[in-house]
Amino acid sequence: MSTVETTAAPPDGALRQNLLIGVLSVVTGAIVIPYGASMPYIREGIPGPGLFPMMIGGLLILFGVLLPLSGGIGRRRARRRREALAADGAGTAPAAVHGTAADDALAMPGAAVPDDAGDTPVDELATSGVLDTDVGSDGVRRWINGAILMGGIVAYVLLAPVLGFPITMALLVLAIVRSLRASWLAAVVTGVLTSLGLWGLFEQVLLVQLPDGLIKGF
Amino acid sequence: MIHDVESALLLVADPTTILVVVLSAIFGLVIGALPGMTATLAAALLVPFTFFLDPVPAIAAIITMSAMAIFAGDIPSALLRIPGTPSSAAYTEDAFALTRNGKGPIGLGVSLVASVIGGLFGSVLLIFVAPILGEFALRFTSYEYFWVAVLGLTAAVIVSKGSQLKGGIALMVGLLVSTVGLDVTLGHPRFTGGEEQLYRGVDFIAAMIGLFGLSEVLRAVTARRGESMPIPTMDSGGTLRPTLRGIWRNRARVGSGSVIGGAVGALPGAGADIAAWIAYAVTRSTSRIRGGKSAADDQRIEAISGASSANNAGIASAYVPTLAFGIPGDTITAILIGVLLVKGITPGPDLFLYQTDTLYALYVIFIIANLLLLPLGFLLIRVSGSVLRIPRSILMGLIVAISICGAFAINNGYLEVGLMVMFGVMGYLFEKGGIPLAPVVLGIVLGPIVERNFMQSVIKTNWDLTQFFTRPISAVLIVLVVLAIASVPLMGWLGRRAERATARRQAEAGAAVGT
User: Fold this and answer.
1) Are B217 and A131 in contact (CB under 8 A)?
2) Taking a contact as any Cβ pair under 8 Å apart, which residues of chain B between 54 and 83 contact chain A?
3) Is residue B457 domain-resident?
4) Per-residue pLDDT for chain A (218 aa), expressed as one digit of tens each?
5) Based on the structure, what is the number of domains in chain B?
6) Would you call A63 and B169 a contact, using CB atoms and an 8 Å cutoff?
7) How many CB pairs under 8 A join A and B?
8) Which residues are B190's β-sheet partners?
9) B492: containing domain
10) ipTM above threshold 0.90
11) In this complex, which of A1, A53, A70 lies closest to B190 when CB atoms are compared?
């Protein structure tokens, strides 16, 4: 596996991502340094509050420049290695994997799962239910779900002082749970129970003043 | 000493503390058992509640939760072939293969008992090693603290998974966040945009909830549709005897795993998952089980007993640098340091001098948490099928609700909610860009310590920078820093190598089956 990782050139997407992160990092550093320099000095020539931000800004610029460069260098090295491999006539993938497994002096003998020929096939396992990890969606629905979550939190901040915590929180949880394809019943029950539970815990036990809104006096 | 232990026991025997320990144990077991939900997420969700607790129950909540979550991560490994927390990844294949052969409960039982023994070993190590280092740390001045904090920061970057440059950028972002607010030298407001509420800095709790809680929900709701996974049935009746037999046969493995875990976990920045990989590789490569009936399964149980004791020992020994120097060993200890600072307790040598009852209470909690893991863990193995069936959609709704309440409760205001959302988006984007989040946390926690000690030192000596290098304790510390920093990549490299070797063997086995 290791050879596959190192010989395969990083895809263009990863390089572009590194470039983007690098640029953002450099820009942040470039904003922070002059801001740090504008802060008052302790004495003439002795920086105080601004020193630390300026150091951070400098390192941000340094790392930001190095990140895309290191990606590019890794890519070139990978290409050269692949050419050398092709020249040897051992360019086929299985041979490459096998060759290095034997070459790799560091490979620990037995440091892996032994061959599983004797194990029960996965299909024959008795099952007792299905794991519902799958809350993902396809296409535009993913963006709608993201928007429901973020918009929901903003709406909560705006509406909680008016409608009060219990109602607003129940609506927010209902919207999020429902957007992840739970049934209406499950969504409503979760929303109401979560809201009442947290209300009881924070307002009654921990004595946090949650926004009351409409239902003042309880 | 006896008096301290007595008052520590009194602190722990408080009904609130006991209730908190039990609740956070259950919380840790459930979150740890769900694939994709990490112990760090669980810690971040606990933090707003610790805000209302006294220091001892607050510490108890986080310690108990993390001990439970690391074991619970083995459950989805065995049932679904997905590690519940990264520290279970080393032996996921073995655990799942045991389930396939009808030995799942035994595998999990061995893993549980090994975890308990490893955790107890780590706690004992902590109790004996931390005070020695703490005594050494008593002679520290601002120069030494500066170096220790630098060590913590460097280690955080070196062990980051993936690109270390990205780890460096993440660390700088964390440090930058830590500079928001009034500065230590002149009280000059920095990065506040004129907002007076930001003068006291970015709230640590809001940042944690956002980075690890909300960002997780954001990722889940925008994920692509995947496959549903069937959960295999496990008959866990009558497993106690074979479990104990398995542990007894592999007692040497549990011992070596505990030692490896204890040593690796104590290195700043290394942590439980690297400990598990190294212990796994060592156990596998020195295995003496050859041939015979069910040799493969025996080897698997052997490997699990080694690696599973290592990750729990690592969790406990990660508290050694945390308590002695105030330098976190991993993300969870970083969160704990943040909580302690909020509570007005400064981790470090002061803890050994002035707050010995808190310190001993912490030791007691470690022992209790690991002992409590035994019955609760067996219970979890029994009900694991039902725990895994908790609908993910409902959990996501709950996490959002707790995050909002937690952020709001910090200061009864919406500024923290806004910060939480900002950090949530940041965590989501960082994850997408492959930037690790752990250095951000360490930057936020250690930033003020590094800056304060550096500024104190240079102002004290009128910018005589040679003082950082010529003081005797500093010199010792620099040597230690260099050694520790050299050992951290070595450990990381060992861990990665073990990871790769395993992956390669699997690929070869797969190819052999295919042909």
Assistant:
1) no
2) 80
3) no
4) 333 444 444 567 778 888 999 999 999 999 999 988 888 887 776 777 888 899 999 999 999 998 888 877 777 777 787 787 777 654 444 433 343 333 333 333 333 444 445 566 666 666 666 665 567 777 788 888 889 999 999 999 999 888 888 899 999 999 999 888 888 998 999 999 999 999 988 888 888 888 877 765 54
5) 1
6) yes
7) 290
8) B181
9) 2-153+239-395+476-514
10) no
11) A53
